[in-house]
Amino acid sequence: MSFIKASIDQYVTEMSSSVDQILHELEKETYQKVLQPNMLSGDYQGQLLQLISKIKSPKRILEIGTYTGYSTICLANGLPDGGKIHTLEVNEELKPIQDKYFNKSGLADIIHQHFGHAADIIPELNEKFDLVFIDADKKNYLTYFKLVYDKLQPNSLILSDNILWKGKVASDSKKDKTARYLDEYNQYLLAHKHISTLILPIRDGISLSVKQ
Fold first, then answer.
1. Distances (CA, A) of 117 to 38, 120, 169
2. What's the CA angle centered on 69, arms 65 and 72, to 5 degrees?
3. How far apart are the C-alpha atoms of 205 and 73, rounded to whole Å?
4. Rounded-to-integer distance, Cα 120 and Cα 6, Å
5. What span, in angstroms and rounded, lies between the C-alpha atoms of 151 and 156?
6. Burial of 21 (0-12, 13-18, 19+ CB in 10 A)
7. What is the pTM of this model?
8. Sheet containing 152-161: which strands, arranged edge to edge?
C-alpha cells in the first residue's frame, strides 16, 4: 500500500539505499513459505527503520511483532556496542526462519526472542527502552503503548506501523474495526501531554512519537 503515484514510489525506492542482501533472501523465503507475506516490512521501510535506529543509536529496543524477523534485523543494525533488542512474537512456528536469518546476519547474540502474547510479556521485561517498534495486532496498539510507557527513557522514540490502514482511518464511511482502533490510537497519541507525534504517509503509514 502506498499513497503516492507508482512512478514516484518507484523513483524514491530506486534513489534510496538498499538493505543488505540477507534481507532480500529473507523476503524471498518469507514469500515462499509463510502465510500473509505482505506483513513483511520490505526494502524501503526496512531501510527507514535501519536509518532511524542508526540515528537514534538506542541501547535497548523493543519490537512488538517479529514475524519472520526482517524488521528485527533492520532495527538491530542500529544498536551500538552493548545494545540489544527484545522482539515479541505470538506465533512460535516462525522461530526456525527467524533463527536462520538472525544467525546469518551475525546479530543473533543481541536479539532476544520472546514468544507469547505481548500483553503478558511486556510487564515482565525489566528494561528501559530507547526505541519501540509496534507492529502486531492493530486492535491492541493502545494497550501495548500504555504497557510500555513507563518503560520508556526520556526522549525515547516509538514507531507505530500501518497507522493509516489503507487510508481508512481518514474515511467516515469506510472505517472497519481495525481502522477505528487505529484512529483511536492516533487520537490518543495526539492528545497525550508528554508525547509528540508525526505521521509519515510512507507505505501504509508509520507514526514517529517521542516521549518528552
1. 22, 5, 25
2. 75
3. 20
4. 41
5. 10
6. exposed
7. 0.94
8. 111-115, 84-89, 60-64, 129-134, 152-161, 206-211, 195-200
Looking at residue 18, the DSSP 8-state letter turns out to be P
Q: In this structure, how many other beta carbons lie within 10 angstroms of the beta carbon of residue 8?
A: 10
Task: Give the residue among 191, 72, 211 at the shortest CA–CA distance from 148.
Answer: 211
Please check whether residue 196 is in contact with residue 210, taking contact to mean a CB–CB distance below 8 angstroms.
yes
Taking phi first (over 0 means left), then psi (-120 to 50 degrees means alpha), and beta for anything else, what does residue 173 get? Answer: alpha
Which residue in the block uniquely carries the three cell numbers 481518514? 170
Query: Measuring CA to CA, which residue among 77, 81, 80, 43 is closest to residue 63?
Result: 77
Task: Determine what percent of the chain is predicted with pLDDT higher than 70.
Answer: 98
CA angle at 70 for the pair 121 and 67, rounded to the nearest 5°: 45
The candidate with the shortest Cα–Cα distance to 157, out of 145, 140, 139, 169, is 145
Burial of 50: CB neighbours in 10 Å, binned 0-12, 13-18, 19+: buried
What is the per-residue pLDDT across 14-62, written as a single tens digit (0 to 9) for each?
898 888 999 999 999 999 998 888 888 888 899 999 999 999 999 999 9
- For residue 139, give the DSSP letter: G
Distance CA 190, CA 194 (A): 10
